[in-house]
Design goal:
With 323 residues, the protein is mostly beta strands. It has no helices and 23 strands. The strands form six sheets. The chain has a five-stranded mixed beta sheet with strand order 16-20-19-18-17, with no helix packed on it. A hairpin with a 5-residue loop joins strand 7 and strand 8. The structure holds beta-L-arabinofuranose. The site of beta-L-arabinofuranose has 13 residues, from strand 2 and strand 17.
């Protein structure tokens, strides 16, 4: 369906919005795109982000959106290589923990943690990445029994280089009827700085309980997000090369999640990436497209629109293009 959408911050190129409500206000944790002059490739070398800004608002469709400025920069991260991709933030006991993927000096994605006293930062990075972390695209779910960190993405996201949380000698990307590579989830330690357990696969299955296959255009590619609605867990994600945002429903943070449908049809630009929150009784999809940059896939603009549910808990599909 067509719906009213808003470009949230036309003054700058930003993407991959992870959104949370802290102290009654919406805080947006995006990637910060810039025109790096790189040629586009499947490894994502054109996404060479160097810092993070935090935005906030108290009215997503109409209110002022404030850019709180640089919250964390590459040069302030002790283990920095390159490419600050999709981050997320969680609050615990009045402290704010930013989780960010970045390539280390060997060009391997790891997940770092940076800590702040306020949701907008500034954030101070830990000396080293999370032990045993790999790949990218972070989302954190806060539950009564702790915090769950979701991560992973294929192709440039490097997930195909791992099996059972160990690096493979040669990357292996499933094909055809083989089960698709799943996202991963791990609970965090009480101090929020490490994995408290071995990461587990996040299975997306069909109505018969079979994992979606590698050749299914609805299979997981990157951009995990989890929200709760009516006591159920909604795992949503990008399908990458088929350019959809899809979702699946489960009974707990680990899944399995049963595939339910498409949230957003393809947008202008190669990537699609999002988060979903409830604010003041309405549900919002934050995402991005490359329409304002004329389709340049690494110059993306943040957007927001409302989403609606049907009585059975399914989400009404939104058109990714507006015209
Ligand atoms: O922004 C860089 C990468 O592009 C993200 O990590 C992916 O989800 C895609 O949006």
């Amino acid at each position: 369906m067509k719906t009213t959408k808003r470009y949230l911050y036309p003054a700058d190129y930003m993407a991959d919005p992870s959104v949370h409500v802290f102290n009654g206000r919406i805080y947006i944790y995006p990637s910060h795109d810039w025109d790096c002059g790189q040629t586009e490739n499947d490894n994502g070398d054109q996404y060479v982000m160097k810092d993070y800004h935090v935005l906030s608002t108290d009215d997503p469709m109409n209110g002022e959106v404030i850019d709180h400025g640089r919250a964390l920069a590459l040069e302030d991260i002790p283990w920095a290589g390159r490419q600050l991709w999709d981050n997320d933030c969680a609050e615990k006991d009045g402290k704010y923990y930013m989780y960010f993927p970045m390539k280390d000096r060997n060009d391997i994605f790891r997940i770092g943690v940076a800590v702040a006293d306020r949701p907008e930062g500034p954030f101070v990075a830990q000396q080293d990445p999370i032990r045993g972390s790999y790949s990218m695209d972070i989302a954190v779910l806060k539950e009564d029994d702790g915090y769950y960190l979701y991560f992973g993405g294929i192709w440039g996201g490097q997930l195909q280089r791992y099996k059972d949380n160990k690096a493979l000698e040669s990357a292996y990307l499933p094909e055809g009827d083989e089960p698709a590579l799943p996202s991963r989830v791990a609970k965090l330690t009480d101090d929020m700085l490490q994995f408290a357990e071995e990461p587990k696969p996040v299975l997306v299955v069909d109505e018969d309980g079979n994992p979606l296959k590698a050749n299914d255009p609805h299979r997981f590619f990157e951009a995990s997000w989890v929200h709760k609605y009516n006591g159920k867990y909604y795992f949503s994600y990008s399908t990458g090369d088929s350019h959809l945002l899809c979702y699946a429903i489960g009974d707990n943070p680990y899944g399995p999640f049963t595939y339910k449908g498409v949230i957003l049809t393809p947008v202008i630009g190669w990537t699609t990436h999002h988060s979903i929150i409830e604010y003041k009784g309405k549900w919002y999809l934050f995402h991005h497209d490359s329409f304002p940059s004329g389709g340049t896939s690494w110059l993306r603009s943040l957007k927001v629109c409302e989403i609606t549910y049907n009585e059975d808990g399914t989400i009404n599909t939104i058109d990714g293009t507006d015209e």
